[in-house]
Amino acid sequence: MYRSMMLINGERVEGASGRFDVIHNPANQEPVAEVAIGDVIDAVKALEAAQHAFPGWSSVSPKRRCDLLHDAADLVRERADRIAELLTVEMGKPIRDSRREVLSAADSLDYFAEEGLRNIGDWISTGDTRSIVIKQPVGVVSLITPWNYPVELLAWKAGPALAAGCTAVAKPSSLAPVAATEFVMAINDAGLPPGVLNIVHGSGDTVGAELVTNPISRKISFTGETSTGIWIMEAAARNLKRVSLELGGHAPMIVFDDADIDAAASACVRRAFGNMGQVCISVNRVYVDDAIAEDFTEKVIRRTLGLRIGDPLDPEVDLGPMVSEAQRRKTREHIEDAVNKGAQILCGGREPDGFARGYYFLPTVLKDVDHTMRIMREETFGPVAPIMRFCGEEDAVRLANDTQYGLAAYIYTNSLRRAVRTAERLEAGSVGVNVGSVIDHHAPFGGWKQSGIGRELSHRGLDEYMEIKHIRLGL
Ligand code: NDP
Q1: Starting at the edge strand that comes first in sequence, how are the strands of the sheet with 31-36 ordered?
Q2: From the CA of 326, how far away is ligand 1's center (Å)?
């Protein structure tokens, strides 16, 4: 069985407790890896190693950091097949998607390698003084990540942190720590000085909490549930630490009557069911103009029924299992609640036949839904597309904004005016118009309202790891 160790100060280590956890494959519940479990002592050791490495790493030239990050990206690509396989067997993502995730993580490292070179400040002349404004690395940072994109989301943090000159301690989710750890090992093996990037395992309320509260770490970059983010922000406030919080989402998709219905239906199926709906920018609510609702719904169902469900290691498979029984149960509960309040299941709504083991669930399309239902208000994090009709632009925008979340939103329309008008009125950090994804390394990503604080990706993502300093010169 595969053994996943922690990395502290450049050394692969067991935790102080010597305990190992076993990770089971969600597709068949077989054990796939043993994971060294850390506790608070390990978290402190990792933070101290990062603190010790900070003066050296922050004074290395940006060009040297850039070269090392490119080397790390190359090594991740070289090891992509292996990392992708571990990712698939620990959390159930189809192998094609796992490979795409790992390669995209390598691209993030390349992107931030270059972005780190553009550390540009200001020079301001004011008569007999000059003001120089520079950006400097924040210090030691804690990087805490969830299980649904364990490699890519870590790359979005480790890339800018290292490029900025910060040193870091990462803590992946206990549900899926293995591929993330391999990713960190690859970065380290590219020649990073010891202690610059560390990874510790363990539960959020022990190891995670230490990374949040220990004064050595100056900033917390967290991706996960809104409730955890709120706890982290409160705990960080005691030391006035910087926080970046990428939290839950409940993305609406609005399909107007002038949309390309085929394109909208296909994006809806991809975005609602990809990774079994376990994506923060999944389509969670579909609002379709009454005039085209029937046609659109029929197309969504046809495409949904064409999805191949199976062993996620099979490269032909579109959908694997969900990550855990808890996640599947929550999906079932949300569907039951909707049905009890009047929703109709058009397809799915249960486990597929022939999968006695593993956390499989059929992609589900619902109609006759409304905002009294949990599925329209809470993050299901499961493969469900609830379709609701609207009458007119005003109604669509009101429904889309009727949520505590504000991460992503999608619009399908062929009217440029309507696209701009609607996009500007939606309360979300990212709006996709006639596209089914809002992720681009060059553009900022983050949430409004209870979906978070701060931005990842783009030059703004790098700024999150920098402090600003004004040096005033008297002449
Ligand atoms: P959780 O909030 O449960 O956990 C995320 C990470 O935080 C895990 O590593 C967890 O450790 C750790 N953690 C838990 N409690 C604490 C604590 N008190 N202090 C420090 N760390 C802690 O989220 P999930 O893993 O369940 O991920 C799913 C959630 O992530 C969804 O809500 C989803 O929307 C969100 N998400 C947001 C994204 C975005 O960019 N906005 C992207 C992807 C997901 P452990 O689990 O090991 O105990």
Answers
A1: 2-4, 31-36, 20-24
A2: 15
